[in-house]
């Protein structure tokens, strides 16, 4: 099953008979409010999806910074976006598909045919295609989401993963090594985690690398793709992009959505620092 769609294929789909629902999921940590950019220019017909309100929920800090929404809330959001049963859903953003992948990951196993637009709105504009300004409202949709696990790993699953399978930390190396101070109370990585930054799967043109390239990158760090693979990042967003890359390469994964933001706030969870999976252990 395809998980990514390019601009020509999207254009063909929009010209076809099957309804297409476009989701504009612009968000990033340093600019979480993407609505102004959406209002300034978006793909015609796209609705704005607020990652922090629609694809997350308010929670306690111990749950991580962006806890997952309930199935009921996610279905209400999808209907508000105008999604009907049988629609092709295409999510995009302006940040290498990192935020759009969160929508893809939450929706893909719940009965929707959902893709991520490779290159996002930048690729759309590069093709010289038109954009729309202002807001776009949609009539409520009738979609019914399936009560299925999108591929969640718990904090205990993440702790066991290095011995029972593979645990991949997809953050930048300086965060993995504990060299970058952030907003979390501890710096470093989960003991036993191997570092494979999600940016490794993105080409210089902002497009997702080919399945063969992704498989080559995974093999280069010695990951056994036949084992259970758990991914985590800083706040539970970028790991969904790595899940997308692995899925394009035909490899299934689970995402520890609580991420480092939960682990580092959980007393008794050890922290490793340095370049190696075990590193120098610190109590927490």
Automatic annotation (TrEMBL):
GO molecular function, one term: thiosulfate-cyanide sulfurtransferase activity
Keyword Repeat belongs to the record: yes
Domain Rhodanese: 16-133, 161-272
Keywords: Repeat, Transferase
PROSITE patterns: RHODANESE_1 (PS00380), RHODANESE_3 (PS50206)
Keyword Acetylation set for record: no
Pfam families: Rhodanese
UniProt xrefs under InterPro entries: Rhodanese-like_dom, Rhodanese-like_dom_sf, Thiosulphate_STrfase_CS, TST/MPST-like
Protein name, per record: Sulfurtransferase
Provenance organism: Microbacterium hatanonis
């Amino acid at each position: 099953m395809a998980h990514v769609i390019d601009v020509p294929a999207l254009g063909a789909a929009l010209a076809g008979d099957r309804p297409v629902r476009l989701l504009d999921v612009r968000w990033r940590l340093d600019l979480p409010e993407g609505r102004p950019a959406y209002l300034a220019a978006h793909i015609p017909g796209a609705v704005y999806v607020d990652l922090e309100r629609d694809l997350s929920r308010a929670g306690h800090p111990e749950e991580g910074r962006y806890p997952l929404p309930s199935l009921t809330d996610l279905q209400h959001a999808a209907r508000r976006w105008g999604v009907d049963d049988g629609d092709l859903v295409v999510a995009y953003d302006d940040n290498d598909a990192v935020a759009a992948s969160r929508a893809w990951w939450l929706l893909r196993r719940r009965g929707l045919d959902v893709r991520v637009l490779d290159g996002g709105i930048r690729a759309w504009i590069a093709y010289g295609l038109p954009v729309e300004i202002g807001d776009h409202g949609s009539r409520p949709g009738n979609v019914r989401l399936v009560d299925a696990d999108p591929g969640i790993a718990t904090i205990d699953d993440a702790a066991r993963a290095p011995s029972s399978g593979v645990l991949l930390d997809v953050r930048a190396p300086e965060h993995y090594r504990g060299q970058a101070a952030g907003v979390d109370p501890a710096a470093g990585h989960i003991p036993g985690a191997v570092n494979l930054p999600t940016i490794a799967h993105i080409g210089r043109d902002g497009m997702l690398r080919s399945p063969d390239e992704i498989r080559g990158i995974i093999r280069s760090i010695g990951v056994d793709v036949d084992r259970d693979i758990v991914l985590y990042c800083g706040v539970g967003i970028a790991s969904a992009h790595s899940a997308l890359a692995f899925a394009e390469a035909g490899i299934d994964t689970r995402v520890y959505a609580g991420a480092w933001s939960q682990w580092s706030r959980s007393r008794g969870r050890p922290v490793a620092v340095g370049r190696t999976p075990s590193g120098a252990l610190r109590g927490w």
